[in-house]
Write the structure tokens for this entry.
Amino acid sequence: MTWYPCKPTPGGPPGGRLHLQLCNDPAWAQEPKFDGVRCIASVSDGDGEGGEVRLRSRTGKPLLATAWVIAGLRWLDPGEYDGELMGGEEFLVFDLPCWAGETLPRDWADRRWRLEHQSWTATVRLVPLLDGAAGFAEALDMGAEGVVFKRRSSPYPQATRIGKLTRNWFKIKGATP
């Protein structure tokens, strides 16, 4: 399969046939894609006192967030959390590149399971999974800019940290009126 960005087809679903192919394929998971600042949050072990938190862009530059976001991240399990920093006031997590200091070679489904068993707050949340062809409209209703499809069997793609493309993550942006 050739991977190209897809544009909405007039009168058809966003992403055209490829969107329909991926959203009906059980090998792929579908998540909303929000338009924030891509961020890796590193949380260290705090021995019950809350861990130290570092936020950085995918190019390694330090980022700032509100005390509420830092507090929400501080109580997560140690590791790295990949997500979108929304105006410095919310952090929406979508993947887990590192767990307690070790790189996760595990597949997306295992990383997602670990994320689903965290304690989330109002300012630090896990992006929801979307279901089927209606998932795209649901994502736009949430204020997302589109959807990201992730191959369920794939390891975390380290290349995404520096903005390179991967065949295991595929983004389809929506056309907003």
DSSP finds four helices and nine strands in the chain. The longest strand covers residues 90-99. The domain at 36-126 is CATH 3.30.470.30 (D-amino Acid Aminotransferase; Chain A, domain 1).
